[in-house]
Amino acid sequence: MTDIPRRILVLGGARSGKSRHAEARGAGHRGPKRYIATAEAGDEEMAARIAAHRADRGAGWETIEAPRDLVSALRAAMAADAFVLVDCVTVWLSNVMLAEEDPKAAVAALLDVLEEARGTVVLVSNEVGLGIVPDNALARRFRDVAGRANQQLAAACDEVVFVAAGLPLTLKG
Amino acid sequence: MTDIPRRILVLGGARSGKSRHAEARGAGHRGPKRYIATAEAGDEEMAARIAAHRADRGAGWETIEAPRDLVSALRAAMAADAFVLVDCVTVWLSNVMLAEEDPKAAVAALLDVLEEARGTVVLVSNEVGLGIVPDNALARRFRDVAGRANQQLAAACDEVVFVAAGLPLTLKG
Amino acid sequence: MTDIPRRILVLGGARSGKSRHAEARGAGHRGPKRYIATAEAGDEEMAARIAAHRADRGAGWETIEAPRDLVSALRAAMAADAFVLVDCVTVWLSNVMLAEEDPKAAVAALLDVLEEARGTVVLVSNEVGLGIVPDNALARRFRDVAGRANQQLAAACDEVVFVAAGLPLTLKG
């Protein structure tokens, strides 16, 4: 426990082990561990994914569901003695866009909360820009929004890790 | 030549130079060099790809075709003095799924063989999770299977290398 | 300013911050700074992207448009005291293929110009092979062309950097 906040961004592809890496970072933590889940169990496939993720996590996590209101959930969860994990930024941005809210404003609000961070905050986010240009315009727009958000979050965080095949590679910090 | 097995996972995107990197690792090898090919020349495009790959390889390789039965092919090919290259895990997993076999069981069997590894075993595998979420459910399922397999293989290997634009980046080992 | 040319390849995904990184490399440069743009404002979306990129660049850049004739544009722009930025190779290759020219010959000509490089030449290029295999054959072919080009350019350059979330990772140099 320290007075200096620690903001960590964990980037990676689908099924890269990024969530597991983020959770493992909290293994020795003595204070409260809070998991902010942004996925909604909208269909069976997603419900199965969420259940699998929950089973993967060890005990000792308090789960907070925040498909769209991540900013206030994070503000409420942060504390000098807390380890807060947001899983994940990309799904939240997708929910924000589906609700036809402005993703730029949403990211700006998230950056404001990070400025006031206390304790440890770990943000998990997907890298989605390394494939071929998507056919449909919405996917291209989402790719831009997610990529730009990752750049801004990386600039705001104290540490940035890229995870591939479960193995971390430090990009910053 | 040594009694200590060496298991190497070479990850990378399409046309990243991962196969060439894997083959180059065997350049100075004095014992038998065995190349286990998992691609099937199902259509013209694939036949051309296979022929190009074969032409890229230098002489001195024994080629073994194992589109689906990778596990026994690898078991038979491994030897204390052998350099065995599997190219690639991702295509094998795709063949397994097309044949409606269970990919989890297939990967578990591959991990068992790796436990008994002798000599040098190099596995080439694609990273496929860094693009936008695919539209179709089968592609999403494949992405999960391939990503999970990469994590498990990375944990089981002594060395893991990520190749981009022909340049290796060591993730482990 | 030096007599030794410096060729830099900046790889990254969409909205990874690769262009910004490339531009920042020229920040302290005293001689001419030349920006070779390969994108064409064919539709509104692309026009908006180009305008945003131009606004992102600081002052002090001379802009040269070269959607297809990159090779002569680069040859003309290079000079012992110049910092030349090509943004980007991938879009140029896409233009070459759309014009039904031979991408292999085009890349070979680009490699020839790099051999004669003077001053600093920075090439920005997309990594497009880390997603799921694309459905359509043209996208698969493009992925092969772009991946092969990246390998050849990486071999020809003195420095290769991979950018993710705005953060550079040195692969070579």
TrEMBL record, chains A, B, C:
It is an enzyme of class 2 (transferase). GTP binds at residues 12-19, 37-39, 54-57, 65, 87. Pfam families: CobU. Pathway: Cofactor biosynthesis; adenosylcobalamin biosynthesis; adenosylcobalamin from cob(II)yrinate a,c-diamide: step 5/7; Cofactor biosynthesis; adenosylcobalamin biosynthesis; adenosylcobalamin from cob(II)yrinate a,c-diamide: step 6/7. Its EC number is 2.7.1.156, 2.7.7.62. The active site is at H53. Keywords: ATP-binding, Cobalamin biosynthesis, GTP-binding, Kinase, Nucleotide-binding, Nucleotidyltransferase, Transferase. InterPro entries: CobU/CobP, P-loop_NTPase. GO terms for molecular function: adenosylcobinamide kinase activity; ATP binding; cobinamide phosphate guanylyltransferase activity; GTP binding. CDD domains: CobU. This is Bifunctional adenosylcobalamin biosynthesis protein. It comes from Kaustia mangrovi.
